[in-house]
Known about the structure:
Layout: E1 4-8, E2 12-17, E3 27-30, H1 31-37, H2 40-50, H3 52-55, H4 64-104, H5 116-138, H6 150-155, H7 158-162, H8 172-176, H9 179-193, E4 198-199, E5 206-207, H10 243-254, H11 274-283, E6 303-304, E7 307-308
Antiparallel strand pairs: 1-2, 2-3, 4-5, 6-7
Helix pairs in contact: 4-5, 4-10, 4-11
Amino acid sequence: xxxxxxxxxxxxxxxxxxxxxxxxxxxxxxxxxxxxxxxxxxxxxxxxxxxxxxxxxxxxxxxxxxxxxxxxxxxxxxxxxxxxxxxxxxxxxxxxxxxxxxxxxxxxxxxxxxxxxxxxxxxxxxxxxxxxxxxxxxxxxxxxxxxxxxxxxxxxxxxxxxxxxxxxxxxxxxxxxxxxxxxxxxxxxxxxxxxxxxxxxxxxxxxxxxxxxxxxxxxxxxxxxxxxxxxxxxxxxxxxxxxxxxxxxxxxxxxxxxxxxxxxxxxxxxxxxxxxxxxxxxxxxxxxxxxxxxxxxxxxxxxxxxxxx
Length: 309
């Protein structure tokens, strides 16, 4: 059977790859959007993707679309490596900030006041929340995150906070305030409780019926999983993280790692597949935090002739 199929209607064109069709993956071109914007670059992209030489080259060379696909997979694996580093660094930032927050309120930390393993587990769960939200907001096709609604996208989404990844905090008030942390707490609450959240007078049953007055707002189904259960974060739930810390966390999760001679790029979570996300998850399963009883310094081993000394 043919590998490529083009389906054409009055409003759209679809390019189907037989190898990707079982995974419900295709390329869709919306004519209203395409001709409405009248962008020459968009027309060039459509022609390039649909050209016969780029799908079925005469010389039997590798199709251009396969090259694009392979490069996207390579990029996804590079991004997953960057995410492993970003998550580990972010966990350290979150954990140390929780300790700072307790100390600033004269609450005990050491001598058994807080368990290092428990704090590590909570920091892992906090960062997995962010990773999950980054992913579902980048994949509207999953049908869960209401990114098509401006109220959610501009007012509540993690993507709206992501725009702060390069924002400079100029004043001490900007650095010490907790806007990012408070916004994330509200988003976590929305994920756990859903929206709109209606209760009966006895405060025992959450009703599923939605009044018509909410037609201009968004709807979010409650995600009653351990990941967003507030009781699973007994130490972190009440911590209000400073902007100076959370901005760095957002930056780590949004941009690729700094490499000399290479410009940092924006992480595209929509390109990450299950394998890449699984690799990130598994890399952190053995991560363990502890309280340092003295100052510690992380050093890089010295290499001579390709071997560590």
